Amino acid sequence: MRLIGMLDSPYVRRVAISLECLGMAFGHDAISVFSTYEKFQAINPVVKAPTLVCDDGEVLMDSSLILQFVEATRTGGDSLWTLSDAARMQHEMRAVSVALAACEKSVQIVYERQLRPPSAQYEPWVERVQGQLLEAYAALEREVQARNVVFAQPRNQASITAAVVWQFTQSMLASIVPAEKHPGLVELSARMERTPAFLKYSPLVPGV
Questions:
Q1: Distance (Å, rounded) from C-alpha 137 to C-alpha 11?
Q2: Distance CA 26, CA 75 (A)
Q3: pLDDT under 70 in the chain at which residues?
């Protein structure tokens, strides 16, 4: 398997860390959808990161579907979800769904501010997305504070996704999402960023 995409993408980093935690052997090609568009297009004409190139050459997209495929076909039942406890798994999926919503809204704001000319930016839309972003992080902070058992273990999809998304937002939008209002996420992020998988797939490595 080959994972295509830059680690400064939270979606790519989420997949890389998850595959590492699952003990999957894979190659990683740090190819940008922006600066090396044609190179990415030659692998996946849709040019969507993350892209997973399977052993037979077939291409998969979307971080959640990639991870679902790997757990269903490659791990022999090993999982980053608590499959044995339906209630706990529901809590984990709630946390991941909120984290991915926060990630989506963060990316929308970053793209609007960095890629769209100022004259073409539509402030009412940005304000609405920013409101959604803040609500998502408020909800995620409540999950972290209330569900200690969910976030206690680093080898867990809720912990991985929440920490990856928080790092991305803080690196790009810290002025919008203040750390002091999210102490649970700050602690979770600090703890997760010290783990081997997070250190191995850092968004700050050379070339990213």
A1: 17
A2: 13
A3: 205-208
